[in-house]
Amino acid sequence: MMLDLREIINVPGGKVPFDMEMDLSQLHFDSVKEFLTPLHVEGEVVNRAGVLVLEAHLSADMTCVCARCLKEFPKHLALRTYAFLAQELQDEDNVDYYLLDNGFADMWEIAGTALVLNMDQRQLCKPGCKGLCPKCGKDLNEGPCDCGEDRDPRLAVLGQLLEKDE
Ligand SMILES: [Zn+2]
Ligand SMILES: [Zn+2]
Questions:
Q1: Could you give the C-alpha distances from 108 to 103, 121, 144, in angstroms and in order?
Q2: Which residue, of 4, 86, 114, 158, is most buried by count of CB atoms within 10 Å of its CB?
Q3: So where are the chain's domains?
């Protein structure tokens, strides 16, 4: 989706608001089972003293997979992103920016990149999820399993050290 910015390129103070939805079905993230809504992208591009600055709020609803217990759970994604837009390459500039295409900004590239950069690689169903027992596969959030006797040897050593201290 291309956003027409031609009317503000040379107009300091000029603004172009946008409010659009983007299909996310082609994007895949390990932590996301599926997106339940399109990506809602809302914000504006402002010409700040000759520099085009894009400010956007991205949101979507999705079903995530917990990295520890593998349970699926709903999550609302919401993030804010900024980008600089330039008409031509400015290689002396260290700031990241997107090139305009004949005065148009490629919103899919900008929003899609922001999403990829900000999406958590690992999603947890809740803070401190206990995960699954590596031996029997039981969901330890529901209570301890019967593997307690020979648990992780490193933990056993730690337990002995702690006992010695007492
Ligand atoms: Zn979990
Ligand atoms: Zn177990």
A1: 15, 21, 46
A2: 114
A3: 2-118, 130-166
Q: Could you write out the DSSP letters of every residue in 101-147?
A: BTTEEEHHHHHHHHHHHHS-SSB-SSTT---B-TTT--BGGG---GG
Q: How far is the CA of 24 from the centre of ligand 1 (A)?
A: 24
pTM of the model: 0.79
Please tell me the number of the ligand nearest to residue 122's CA: 1
Cα of 110 vs centre of ligand 1, distance in Å, is 31
CA of 68 to the centre of ligand 1 (A): 5
Cα 6 from chain centre: 30
